[in-house]
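assembly run, all chains below
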Amino acid sequence: VNVHAASVSDHIPVVCLYTNDMKKALLLLSQLTIVASVYAQQKDSISHLLKLSMESLMDIPIYSVSKNQEPTFAAPLSSSVITKEQIKRAGCTSIMEALRLVPGVMVREQTNGNYDIHMRGLDNVPPNSNLIFFTNSTTLVMIDNYPVYNYLHGGTFWETLPVDLNDVEKIEVVRGPSAAMYGPNAVSGVINIITRKPEQEGLYAVGKVQYGHFHSLIANAAAGYAFNNKLSAVLSANYQNRNRTQPSYYDVVQNKYVDLDSVTAIRRNPAGNADEYYPNRELAMRKYAVNAFVNYKRSENIQFSAAGGIQHSQVQKAFGSDTYAANLTTAKSDAVYANLKGSLYDFTIQLSYLNGTQSPVQGATIWKWDFNTFDAVVEYNFNKIKNLSITPGIIFRNAVYDDSKYVKADIREGFWSGRAESVTKAASLRAEYKLLNQRLRLVAGGRIDKFNYPNKTYFYYQLAATYKINEQNLVRAVQSQANRAPLIIDLFSNLDLTGRLNANQTYLLEIRGNKNIKLLSSNMFEIGYRSKVSDNLEVDIELFHTRTRDFSNTVFESGQFNSTEPVGFRGLLDINNVAVYTKQWGGTMAVNIVAEEWQLKPFITLQRTTLYDYSPYLNAPEAPPLPSNNNNPALYNIYSGRGTKMKHAGTPSWYGGAYINWTAREKLNINFNAYYYAAHSQLHSSNLTYNDGQRGVDRLRSKFILNTVIQYAATKKLTLSGNFRNCFNDKSREFYKSDEVPFMFFAGAHFEF
Amino acid sequence: MEKSCITKLKETLYRHINNRKARWLLLLLPVFFCFFTVHRQKEKAEEYNLKAAFIYNFTRYIEWSTSSTDHEFIIGIIGSSQINDPLVEVVKTETVNNKKIIIRQFSKVEDISSCHILFIPKNSTLSLADILAKVEKGTLVVSEKSGYASKGTAINFVVVDNKLKFEANVNAINAAGLTASSQLLKLAIIIK
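ok done. output:
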């Protein structure tokens, strides 16, 4: 009950500021609009060029508008694209950081180089959960259309992505439920990283090095060779090493940051093996990977591509928890992958395989397993009828997580103590029809998924319409529904926890998965408007309403005390659906202004999320009386929030950024990019334990991060850069009890030929 | 209760400081923007708008010995190209010798039919030799890929010092039965 009161009163100042900040944002936008309109000139128009003589035409410098214009103008869904040029100019040091240039994406840094990335929201729902439920588990992340999110819990281990910025051609982002078009788990959106291919015949090579504060070294290189206009190959490698920005760790018991050895959980560890949990205390991230790509384009109709690689990573981040670990834990991953794609006339075939070992909480026995995933997609594009395109597809997906090598499966020591296998067979259909002289475009997608567990057929859909009022203005609407993929943790958890209850007795907690769990699902209605106000001013506005239900959490189902047996308490916990559901209203506005040597892209998202039927009690009515349910489970249980509603504090009410680029001289480029969000509060399960409004609660301050990047092209092949991240040195932390995020300077060199 | 009020006040203060920084910056940037833009106004053009304008200009300097029965001037494009949209703009207002300009797209070599100008985009995967073998006499073949003029296209766009120039292969122009004016050749980089 205290939780509710605290979070409601917390919002009063936020609400007041909300209007102020909105005003500021609108003021800025109106200013930019005025400025842009002044320079909205028609010099570039064809009619103007046709009046000029051949000699004059030959004297006009070229610029490439396609690089600056938003490529998503006609897209039916809310989408954005960032290109490798923008990423380079903005001085981004990783793919994760580059997502700060995309509207509608929440990017919070946990430790140097490690980020929590959410789309539009749904973060910290349900509140008062364990850290693993803080992770975004509802976004479909892909590299070249191959899914790379984790089947374990639906999240993405960003540090395990084998590619880095030197491999990136562009990053495409779709906001909103889009599973019918893109596949399961696209509940809050899709992030698709498209890799680079050689552009012209012969050799190209890219090398980048950035070195900065906290021993941060980012080095990557790629060499590509196009044998002719049909066959090309690329070999690339990347390395990142980053130290933490502070030596201390948060200790919930003392409610402060202390040396690792003083953290209560570490001190209580009878094994005293803190070094196994924390092999490199100062290290935030060390990762490397090698990739190879081959592309063969026999003709427009026959194309093949293959990719393969190997990755290793070790990071400290806020992800999992263990009795003897601090809030940050060491996560390790080693994996290999192979992808194959072929387009044969109207057929597309895509196969991908990933195999590796993960230990997200290094040192803790239960947190280690081998995994492999296999994906196969076959699609056929039927486009024989004018203005109509139909694409049916079949999909097979197999994910195996196996911890039997690392745990004693017979005593259920591991997370699922054996082999957990999730199988998906699916059929999809996409159709697109243009009518009214191609002005009205209707896009429909539907998909049926049959999983081995939960043993139920899921159907979801997406309907989108765009209407081109004229060449400059477009309105659109989307109605869609999407499900999260079945998660290994939800379905297969099979862990026994034992310990001492008193001098003579032990306890046994059986933690089980739930093969009949309902998959989280989201319904969205969205309208959007895009306008090319003038040659150099574009505006993109989207308004959405989303309803999401069937969240899952660990629920205390039942338990019995027994005073005579050696096992004095036996309890059953399972992963089950909880009553809470959310409704979110929001809007995103993005503006793109191109004028001479300037490009400005400010964007902002405003949102409000309401939790309905939320109960902080994670026990069934049948659970035993415990302090956590006020010794009255019949009254205080997962259903006791029925009929209530509260504003959700976990997602900031406004957030956004800006990309401002100035090509000052032919050789000199100056870039300002900003990222900002409003204050918000994250609630951890320890809030329920301590219930003092301090422990388990992190009130994250609003933050405005400004990065400034100066790049000088010393020669045609070599660019030198000075990269100032977080110029105002606002050190405030961005994620629940993780590290501070201060100013960092990077010096860099970028070599390309 | 008191404690939470103080915390709130502190938070509000923090926010205020942050927002003041933000406001300062946000207000200043457009000012910078205006200032520099005023000082650096130059004429520039988008690559494919320029190429479309060049192609239209070629029609003034090249003579097609076309039969008088032709009512249309046909520009062919191999596959899809960014030049398509600017050419569509040209067609809306311009004619060649009072003939309507028509744009045709060819996705395969077999599809290539009679046209006055044929544009080969740099991303085309079709073999140049196959295209040149299929092209009929009376077609001005225009390309935009380095080395293509010496491989037999009549005109090839090149970018020199960020400006658009063109190579002319006089033999190829003549072999196509076309006549290029000396004015045009004076501006061209001649490839033999």
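The radius of gyration of chain B is 27 Å.

Residues 35-42 of chain B have pLDDT under 50 and may be disordered.

not gonna interpret more than that til we talk
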